[in-house]
Amino acid sequence: MKRKLNENDQPTPVAAAVETENPASTTTQADFAFPDFGLDSKLLQSVAHQKWGKPTLVQSRAIPLIMDGSDVLAKAKTGSGKTAAYLLPILHAILKRKQTVTKPSTAALILCPTRELVDQVSKNIATLTAFCTKEVQTVKLADKQSDTVQRTLLSASPDIVVATPARAWQNIKSNSMSIENLDHLVLDEADLVLSYGYDEDLRSVAAALPKGVQTVLMSATLTTEIDTLKGLFCRNPTVLDLEEADADGEGISQYVVKCAEDEKFLLMYVVFKLKLITGKCIIFVSDVDRSYRLKLFFEQFGIRSCVLNSELPVNSRIHCVEQFNSNVYDILIASDENEVLGDEDTQGVGPSNNHDSEPTSKEQAPPQKKRKASRRDKEYGISRGIDFVRVACVVNFDLPTSSKSYTHRIGRTGRAGQTGMAISFVIPSDKFRKHMPTSVETAENDEKILARITKQQAKKGKEIKDYSFDMKQVEAFRYRMNDALRAVTKVAVREARTREIRSELLKSEKLKRHFEENPAELQHVRHDGELRSARTNPELRHVPDYLLPKEGKKAITPNDVGYVPFKKVRDGKQRKGRSFKGKGRKMGGRKTDPLKSFKARSKR
């Protein structure tokens, strides 16, 4: 609903609004239930269908304020239910308005920093409107659609438009989207919007908004960017700085491994080949080349993984995340090019991976980096906003360049009350550039970044422990690691990268409609297929017994890290025996030799 304007064209203050509200001291969640909010019965049906229990802290505080018409700025941790906190009251207002207003018009505009998050929010809207699909129309402007297609989608004046700021302003500017009757504006992951270079688009959208629009800003952190957006869109917003205390035994266990540059690959091989970590895992690397190098390295040992980066088509990225959440893949290698940088990075800590940010001088933006950035999708982001389901472990294969980015990366695990584990590789300064084929520039400042990360986590009461490997036991695997790395050359990485992009483009565009009609054939477009380096070593796929220590896998990691896997590991004793008939197998309780049982008659 719109707020009433006074004689100065300013929104009238809401009695329930408070300048700041910090319930950090009240760790217990308010005893609310979803029916207590007075939501539409169709929305309550969807909530019940999703089997949601009591609302989370951010939902119990934000929903009543948004329903009263207040501007809200809410800060809550990832996985706390921020999306539903603003969708439910907005959908309720739209359904209520439909009872009196018959003329269609766009009532809500939701802006997200990345295309992946746009798609995710659109799916959440579809879930919450499952019992009122015909009454609420939604359009997402994230796919690479032509201007004509976008104009056609917006011509029906959908109730909700979900888009990135650039797409939204493009359609507002061309008069394809009308916001004259807009009631609600939402900025999801608001602290990232300016980091992704949308400041001009946001200022243009703010200037075009009608008066009296209710604004909701959702974020995981309160930064200077939030203050800028608050002054741009909000007037006297209610600030919710929410801190939920983790329950006993819950949260993220954080570990660090200090090793040489090539030992990263060695330990990753040992961890996944011997299954020291079970469950789904996201591995963060610094750039696109690094992701393909690691994938090709895994292929030498028969370890399947899929790659997620900004060069892949948006349809392929979204499909890859969906299949990862559906347990099709266990290992996801994500390149964090659009890294979330903190205030400490302005002090010259080291090179940054954020190729899409504006350079401060000509010397800081060489022509080669500009060409690389032009091929990448600036609306790509994986370390924030995306709702990954039941991720057991996050591995910082390449340490991020800021403590803020570290926080967002490890937030992909331990969500919604689950436990998780984060392992970070750190290169000591005396081992930097000692193995050039596996070296990366950002590793030069790993120790400085680790000190800042440790300090930041200590303020939250979190401890980063050492994940100690017994390198003597792992040393037997080193020659196999060297054989695999020699096969993963720069030429192999470049060819694999080109081949993967061509393949994904084909899957994304030409086969999209076909596989929507034939879902059973989706197995033919798996994203973890082999890329095939120039030279393969089939013998590396198997681990001989002589490489393992006498004590078994536990000898490699002698310290118990206290990690409980998501998947239940079954041994062979619990499986039912099967009888096979064939050569050399048991037949009728005895072994048969196909040569001795062979009968033939001689010719006379």
TrEMBL record:
Pfam families: DEAD (PF00270), Helicase_C (PF00271). Residues 1-25, 342-378, 565-604 are annotated as: Disordered. PROSITE patterns: HELICASE_ATP_BIND_1, HELICASE_CTER, Q_MOTIF. It comes from the Eukaryota. Residues 575-589 have a biased composition (Basic residues). GO terms for molecular function: ATP binding; hydrolase activity; RNA binding; RNA helicase activity. Its main location: nucleus. It is found in: Nucleus. Belongs to the DEAD box helicase family. DDX56/DBP9 subfamily. This is RNA helicase.
